[in-house]
Every structure is written in C-alpha cells, then in structure tokens.
Amino acid sequence: MTHWWQAGVIYQIYPRSFQDSDGDGIGDLAGIEARLDHCVALGVDAVWLSPIFPSPMADFGYDVADYCGIDPRFGTLADFDRLIAAAHARGLKLLLDFVPNHSSSQHPWFLESRASRDNPRRDWYIWRDPAPGGGPPNNWISDFGGSAWTWDDATGQYYLHAFLKEQPDLNWRNPAVRAAMMDVLRFWLARGVDGFRIDVLWHMVKAEGLPDNPPNPDYRPEMGEMHSLLQLHSTDQPEVHAIAAEMRAIADHYSTPGAERVLIGEIYLPVVRLMRYYGAAPGEGVHLPFNFQLIEAAWNARALSRLIADYEAALPAHGWPNWVLGNHDRARIASRVGPDQARVAAMLLLTLRGTPTLYYGDELGLEDVPIPPERVQDPRELREPGLGLGRDPVRTPMPWSAAPGAGFTTGAPWLPLNPDWRTRNVAAQAEDPNSMLRLHQALLALRRAYPALATGDFIGLEADGDILAYERRLGAERLVVVLNLGGWPARFDCEGPVRPLLSTLAGPSEVGHDAIRLRGHEGLVLLREG
Ligand code: TEU
C-alpha cells in the first residue's frame, strides 16, 4: 500500500518570506493561508513551515522560546488553527519544524537553568567546568564559527551550543527533558499537524564525557571554521536512535489510515550512516531521513547516476527514498546549475523514485539574491563574513506579482526582492506556458497521471557524457526519463517505441523510432509503447 508521504510532494515555506498580511514586511500565517491556493495550483501534497514559534529570532525561529505557541510576528494560535483547517479543506497536509536539539537562551527553561548551579533545571542543558588549564571544556566548534562553549559568569561554568550562543543545547540524556519535548510533539499532533521536520536530529545526543573532536584532514578555511574538526563525538551517537523511535511511536499513535503523521529528519551525514535513521526495524525510525545529495553533488551524469545507484542500494528494505534540491540553508538550484539547467534539475527531482521536497521560489527559478552588506540579517554571515556562508540570498520574499512589494508586502520587505521581480513572479509565470512555474505544474500533474513516476521501480539506463537516463516502472506502465545535463545537443538510443509526454523546453522534440536527439538542457519524459 502506498502512503501519502510516499507518493506526495512536500513544499517548504520559509514563513518570514512567503506572504505578509499586515504590512510589516515579514510574512505571517494569515499570509500563508491566503496563498494556499498557490500550493494547490502547483500540485504539491504537503506544506512544511520553517519555525513559527515565539522566538527572539537570533537564528530566525531556530531559537525557540516557547515550543507550544506562535510568535506574534507570525500570528496567534487561532490563526494557526485557521491555517491548518484551510490546508486540510484543500487536501493539503501541514508539517511543522520541530527544533529539539537546542532552545533559545530566552526560553524559561534556560533562564532557570542558568539561574544557579542547584536550580532543578540546571541539568536540562549542558554545563561544564573550564578545562583543567582554563578555557572551554573541549575543542568543539559552533556551526556558526568559534567555540561551541560560552562562559557564564554568574554561575562560573560554560554551557554548550552547537549553533549560536543564543541557542543552548538541551541535555537529551536527562529524562525530564525528553518527556517535556515528547509532550510538545503531542501538543501539535493533537492540534492536527500532519508531522514534523526535525531540526538537526543527528546532533541531539553527545558522546559521554564530551571528548575532543579530531581535526578534519580535508579542512580548508573557505569551508568555514565549523569544518575544521570532524564532528565525531558531538553528533550521530547511537543513543539518538532510541529517541527517534520514541518520537515515531508518538507519531504512529496519532496516525490513522490515509492520515499518517510523518517524521522527517534533517541529517547531514554520508549515506551509509544516514540509513540508520530509518530505524533498525520498520516503524522504529523517522519516515524520511532527508537525502541532501542533490544539493552536494557535482552536476554531471556520471556523478548523479552513481549517487542515485548507491543510495538505492543502501536503502533498507523498509526505507522509502526521498530527494531534496534546495532549502533555506543552501544556495538555490538555479544559482548552482544555472537557469537553463534548473529546468532539467526540476525534472530530475520530480521523476526520481522517492518523496521530493521542493523549496518555495524554486518553482519560479528564483536565484540567490545579492544582499548589500548593510542589509545582511543572517548571523552566519555576520559571524564569518565574506565566506559566502550567509543564507539571506536564498530566503528572499516570494514574488507574487508586478504590484508594489511584488504582492508580498504593502510595506518594506525584510530582505530585498529578487532584482527581476517585475517579470519573475507567480502571476507572470502563470500566464506564460513556457515558464518554470508551468513546467513544475506539468511535472506534478504528470506524477498524478502516471503513478509509475511517483512510486514505480527505478531502473538506471544510461549515464554517458551529458545524458542521464532512467526508467520508472509500475505494472505495465513504463516511463523513460532522459536528461541532457549539458548545453549542447546529445543523442540517446531508446530501444523500442516511445511517445514524448513532456519536455523541459518549448517547441518540438526530436523523438525518432530508436534515437532521440535532445537539445541542450533538454529533459524529456517519455512513455514506452507496446
Ligand atoms: O541547519 C542545520 C545545519 O546543519 C545546517 O546549518 C548545515 O550545517 C548547513 O546547511 C551546512 O552548510 C538547521 C536549520 O536548517 C538552520 O537554518 C539552523 O540555523 C540550524 O539548524 C540551527 O537550528
């Protein structure tokens, strides 16, 4: 039996940047509700919202000060209830972002924890004395650069933070923390949410004794200081799997047939270690440990076909694949591979075997937007400027129309709009049959019309030169996908008769009896006949 989260497509919304409803230049829940019909017209099945909880916004919501509320900038719990009802009325699932590794330093738990060494919540976070010779307890580096430890003068100890000092790590070895956080999941599940994307799942448990991390032999300064060490002891500890299993049991408890509550793990690990997050047995891990390989891969046929084959081969019998092309942390696909190839990339994402996650704005071919220094917001850029680690360029407002503020806001947008917003916007692309938006709509419609594309088997056909070709099979239904990853014409020999269903390019495709001549940057979906 196929579940919704297997056949479906997930759409990530960055709430600050989707739609503003009150003119403050920041997107909000009422805005998202007003734009749900865009998600329906696009053809996605589920919407995942980056964090919407009360937050000082040191890391734009990934620093949560109250796990069971809504930040006033985004709205109220009543707005949230309206949003989820409106989503469900349209047949859309709604997923939230759960941030369990760390809270905000303004969370009441941390305020108590730092109040005194004997506070009952002291052990809810990770406090340590200085190293014997002075200085931080170990050599761990924050993801944003600098030591992962911050000194607290009042109580004379350091606390650990894998990210900003405003994001202290919770101590998941403390059963009280674990119980409180599991209750957070229940709170939202009871409110009707369809699942969670779990932030930095692989970070949640640290090695006993907190030993030093070893140096990274491949480190180069332009990678950012966080990569100077291997995160051997600070991440991916075996104990994390029991926590994932407990979360899964809770999600399953709230699931009904056709309405499974889904867990997605944000995990940046090599494939072999990633697989463990599916759980040792069915139902013991997350449904979808995010597969970020398309974000990190070299964009050529050989590399892509190798990683697809290796990933397929590594999947456990109970593991359903998934693919991600972009998110709020990484350069946009149109900037990574160029605007023409981005159309081919969209076809790849939406025709591979596995649940695709589509990042808002990528359906318009949005590129990274240059941010003038005086408008930089991202702490990662502010902490290590000039390395290109800043994430503002991929978080700019969704351009809806040629109206002032691109239809995103009647006020001043919190980040600059894409420079070409007057022409690159939803309204303009909806009118243009050759637009990126219309290509996404066509690809998503094709997935519904041909179930082989969503859930069929994957058979690699060719990875030669610029051509990547594969077949998707379900029963008698057989579709062939041929992608030209280069800018020049290329030929593919297709055994047996095929009929073209969709091209990434306008105009006629050259599909002969046996040979297909692809134009530069052309991708084709074909139906095998006979
Ligand atoms: O990201 C975690 C994370 O590991 C990424 O920052 C990763 O290091 C980076 O993409 C590698 O280039 C999550 C959220 O997605 C991010 O926005 C938060 O800042 C972070 O956790 C802390 O909560």
UniProtKB/TrEMBL annotation:
Family annotation (InterPro entries): GH, GH13_cat_dom, Glyco_hydro_b, O16G_dom_2
Lineage top rank: taxon: Bacteria
Region (Disordered): 370-395
Domain Glycosyl hydrolase family 13 catalytic: 12-395
Pfam family membership, one: Alpha-amylase
Record's compositionally biased regions (Basic and acidic residues): 375-384
Protein family according to the UniProt entry: Belongs to the glycosyl hydrolase 13 family.
Protein's name in the database: DUF3459 domain-containing protein
Organism classification: Bacteria, Pseudomonadati, Pseudomonadota, Alphaproteobacteria, Sphingomonadales
